[in-house]
Amino acid sequence: MADEPKHVGRPKNEAASTALKQAAIMLVREQGYGVSITAIIEAAGVSRQTLYNRWATKAELVLDAFFEQAQTQVSTPDLEGDAPRRRLLAIYLREVFGHVNSDGELLRTLLAEAQIDPGFRKVFFERFVSPRAEIVIDLLRDAQARNEIDAARDPELMTSMLHGALWYRLLIDQPLTDDIADELAGEIFRGGR
Amino acid sequence: MADEPKHVGRPKNEAASTALKQAAIMLVREQGYGVSITAIIEAAGVSRQTLYNRWATKAELVLDAFFEQAQTQVSTPDLEGDAPRRRLLAIYLREVFGHVNSDGELLRTLLAEAQIDPGFRKVFFERFVSPRAEIVIDLLRDAQARNEIDAARDPELMTSMLHGALWYRLLIDQPLTDDIADELAGEIFRGGR
Amino acid sequence: MADEPKHVGRPKNEAASTALKQAAIMLVREQGYGVSITAIIEAAGVSRQTLYNRWATKAELVLDAFFEQAQTQVSTPDLEGDAPRRRLLAIYLREVFGHVNSDGELLRTLLAEAQIDPGFRKVFFERFVSPRAEIVIDLLRDAQARNEIDAARDPELMTSMLHGALWYRLLIDQPLTDDIADELAGEIFRGGR
Amino acid sequence: MADEPKHVGRPKNEAASTALKQAAIMLVREQGYGVSITAIIEAAGVSRQTLYNRWATKAELVLDAFFEQAQTQVSTPDLEGDAPRRRLLAIYLREVFGHVNSDGELLRTLLAEAQIDPGFRKVFFERFVSPRAEIVIDLLRDAQARNEIDAARDPELMTSMLHGALWYRLLIDQPLTDDIADELAGEIFRGGR
DNA sequence: AAGTAATCGAGACGGTACGTCTCGTCTTTAG
DNA sequence: CTAAAGACGAGACGTACCGTCTCGATTACTT
């Protein structure tokens, strides 16, 4: 019977949200996560309260802004087709490496914030890390089903090694090239069977 | 033949340095890296300027304090002996996992700061990450020389996978057990030869 | 016809201003001009920024607080009436001496600050010294018009002597009694005509 | 019978005292009394402790430095001769005005410090103000004895007016010319007899 | 010649205050 | 209700001085 409240008062200005997200992503890219909230609202031409009406913390704002960007979306490998899974893994890694290379600084800073703020850590891993882990785990399980790798190995551990290598090299400023992607796939599928 | 300049002026009070490092490490463990400098100097019973006379930033103080602790020191595997290198690797990983498990929060927070402050990043990796990478690379090269793993594989990439898995699991709160250590060594030495 | 912009944003809390002025005047009276800004804001129960939102320096705050006090206001002598000007001058001097005696320490300290800070000096003399000088100069000119003192004498110089004597005796801790006031008036009007 | 203790230990380096006084007077002239002690010892090329070995406060140092300067010494009027005392007073005032004009800023700042620090106030008035007051009082008493001014008038009050006018005009940045000096003498001796 | 005592430079130290900055909340007027 | 503007309490930050202290070296008098 809920009385549809319809809507009361001045409607939210969507332009304000957009301006905030754009300002946030731009300033974080420029100056790192340390930018002040004041700087963000000034760049967005928006009042302080308007920001707090939408996001409780800087981290949530930046996360939202980050995920709105297309290049954070990975394409799921086609497990219906008949391509060798080693090849699919290499393609996937190359794609992810590309994203990371173009936005490494931002990722670094989000990862840092995730270590400091447990709430943010949860969201960051749910929305960013886990989906990617799932993709790789599925791919490796499929490879086991197709007998391309040994069924006794642990797909989750292999994923730790793959994504771990990715993060590790990002954090210590080592390159993430296509060759590295191929070699990583090779390491996992080494020995065949 | 340099004329040792002896020493000029009132000598630094070593007790103040020690008190600051102890207070820093204690408070960072308790409250995370976000503790205020004010809290640290109060806990140490030291003046603000005294801290700034010794360290330019909180990061440098915390880093110094951290490295003074014994449990950050790993024992280098004995490559003189005849033990299988797979076994030496597993032992090394178990030991490192132990340190990480007992000081995970602090490591997390230092890693985060390293992402934010490039100067600190450099120091952190030079003093903490690189030495560990070197140990593993040496061990793997030795294993190749002993024909325990294929000489064509890239020891540096394998190190990325091993330490990457370690950090990755730390960052996403996955367990780092002895079993995992053994499995990781198994993955690298899989197939033998 | 200027479009009154009305006012935007949260208005200043007048109570905070009042509390700051009261705290300032009280503490300066107690401890001298050297009181810390911190002590003032704590006594006023107000945040540090709130003070800086209103006054740029301690001197401006104290000056405002000082001038808000009734006892700094002198009553202009009645030059419409027919009283002897010598008598009006004596009355004026007695009144001013009274103020100075009750707030000598504060005046001393403001005068000192005026010597140190040129900006404050300007304001202090515009708001405090000049109005008083004007009153006496007007009175003396009127006395000259009424032929009570020689028209050839310089009213400005006589004012220097009168107010100078006042400050001089304040600064060297000599008494400022009603008798002195009368004698000073007597010195100026000596000889009559 | 006081056993002359002779002197023990390394004697004070007189050059250090001189350098400190010169640096102090120079910097106070340049930047006002607010110069830091650190700036003074650096300009003097002397250690911090050396300053404190000689003077307890900045005020005492500056005062010493100030009084060492020749132009602070006034010549006592010749009351032996037969010159009209009005003329002697005018000469004295011209001389003092000259000193004040050439060092007004420094005097201003010393006066300010005297208001803030009661100990310094005492010294300042004993060494600077009182001797000058004495000179004028003696002169005026002599004039009374010679029947040049009325014996019933109060020499001390007249001195307050004369020196008060001097300080007042200094403090409010009004000129102190030879003409003003003559006019002041004229005011005191007005009417003759 | 050895001992004693004070000075000097250099600079560390605890303390206090400063003015700026950020954060997240609150209070007003306007739409 | 929402927006813009900006005041507000809280409190950290890094800097500047202050006056004292500690050290090693130096310089003189005293024994």
Architecture overview:
The structure is a homotetramer of 193-residue chains. Chain A has 193 residues and is mostly helical. The first copy, chain A, has 2 domains: 14-61, Arc Repressor Mutant, subunit A; 70-189, Orthogonal Bundle (Tetracycline Repressor, domain 2), CATH 1.10.357.10. Helix content of chain A is 68%, strand content 0%. Chain A has 9 helices and no strands. Chain A has helices at residues 14-31, 37-44, 48-54, 58-67, 85-102, 104-116, 118-145, 155-171, 178-189. In chain A, helix 1 (14-31) packs across helix 2 (37-44), helix 1 packs across helix 4 and helix 6 (104-116) packs across helix 7. The longest helix of chain A is centred in the C-terminal third of the chain and has 28 residues, at 118-145. The radius of gyration of chain A is 21 Å and the shape is elongated. The model of chain A is unreliable at 1-5 (pLDDT under 50). Chains in contact: A-B, C-D. Chain B binds a DNA duplex (31 and 31 nucleotides) through residues 6-13, 16, 36-38, 45-50, 52-53.
